[in-house]
Design goal:
about 170 residues, mainly alpha, Four Helix Bundle (Hemerythrin (Met), subunit A), two-stranded antiparallel ribbon, 4 helices, about 70% helix, elongated, Sigma70_reg_Rsd_AlgQ, transcription
Length: about 170
């Protein structure tokens, strides 16, 4: 499996030039988040009292939650506003791509924040019983989020190409 496709997630866009190196930083953070996610999903099952159990450690879950919140926060407070501002400045108008993509990203944020709130602290048996199912939904949210982020970045590239060729 290539670095670009890590277990079905597009983790790398085409690297961008040095003017947009902050996008490359986001891509690196995305890769790290997916690796931690895959580690949680692919933990070995433990046999206990004649039953197989899926038991990640508290440290593994909290490390994933920390990276997840860092990634989500960095996008909302740093990257997306910067991308949208660059797109608007380059085109001289508000762009419909941002209006279509941002609600999808915000929807994933809501679920990912709830996941973090549930699992970042005070783990117990009841929470652990729903972890595998909740991680499956996290994967769907990350996939949608990555695709939406990719659309924003591709839109930025297209606008810059159009403006620079005008």
């Amino acid at each position: 499996m290539s670095d670009k496709e890590l277990c079905g997630f597009n983790t790398t866009l085409q690297q961008v030039d040095k003017n947009y190196s902050w996008i490359n930083d986001m891509i690196k953070q995305r890769q790290e988040l997916v690796v931690l996610y895959m580690k949680l999903l692919n933990l070995p099952l433990h046999k206990e009292m004649n039953e197989l159990e899926y038991i990640p450690s508290y440290e593994q879950i909290t490390e994933f939650c920390e990276h997840l919140i860092d990634y989500v926060s960095h996008g909302h407070f740093d990257l997306y506003p910067k991308i949208i501002e660059l797109m608007e400045n380059a085109s001289g108008r508000s762009l419909s791509i941002a209006n279509r993509v941002m609600p999808k990203i915000e929807g994933t944020t809501e679920y990912l924040m709830r996941f973090n709130d549930k699992y970042a602290e005070d783990l117990n048996e009841l929470k652990m019983a729903t972890l595998k199912k909740d991680l499956s939904q996290v994967g769907k949210c990350l996939e949608l989020r990555f695709k939406s982020e990719d659309r924003l970045i591709i839109g930025l590239r297209l606008i810059n190409t159009i403006v620079s060729s005008s």
